[in-house]
Amino acid sequence: MLIEILKSKIHRAVVNEANINYIGSITIDEILMDSANLIENEKVQVVNVNNGERFETYVIKGKRGSGTICLNGAAARKAIAGDIVIIISFALMDFEEAKKFKPFIVFPDKNNKITF
């Protein structure tokens, strides 16, 4: 049996850009991506803490160290600069494997730099 479990989470990142004139997606600083074990084009769920919006999109790699969290295309209508978002990905795993799996969870500060 396979179940879907939490794989990665960037908890409470700050949106610092919204670009309606783009094809679509979320651009994420490459350091945040690496730390959360996310890859380019991976499907993610984005939850906006400020307004309750919840939507799915895919990841685009942002400039390393830039702190970029940018909603692109239609997703840019779901948040404005300054909003707090939680970015989540899930994975399908065997039930027994899932019991042992530890998700990659990142807690960025207000500048989207990783805090430990």
Could you characterize the architecture of this molecule?
With 116 residues, this protein is mainly β. It has a single domain, classed as Barwin-like endoglucanases. 10% of the residues lie in helices and 47% in strands. It contains 2 helices and 8 strands, in the order βββαββββαβ. It has helices at 30-35, 95-100; strands spanning 2-14, 17-19, 25-29, 43-48, 54-62, 69-72, 84-94, 104-106. The protein has an 8-stranded mixed beta sheet with strand order 2-6-3-5-4-7-1-8. The protein is globular and about 45 Å long. It starts with a strand and ends in a 10-residue tail after the last strand.
Main features:
single chain, 116 residues, mainly beta, Barwin-like endoglucanases, 8-stranded mixed beta sheet, 8 strands, globular
Head-to-tail CA distance between termini: 35 Å
Compute the gyration radius: what is it? 14 Å
What is the name of the CATH topology? Barwin-like endoglucanases
Total E-strand runs? 8
Strand order of the largest sheet: 2-6-3-5-4-7-1-8
Secondary-structure element order, as H and E?
A: EEEHEEEEHE
List segments where confidence is low: pLDDT < 50 over at least 5 consecutive residues.
Answer: none
Binned strand content: over 45%
| Largest sheet data | 8 strands, mixed
Q: What is the average per-residue confidence, as pLDDT, rounded to a whole number? A: 96
Tally of separate helices: 2
Q: What is the CATH C level class, in words?
A: Mainly Beta
CATH-defined architecture: Beta Barrel
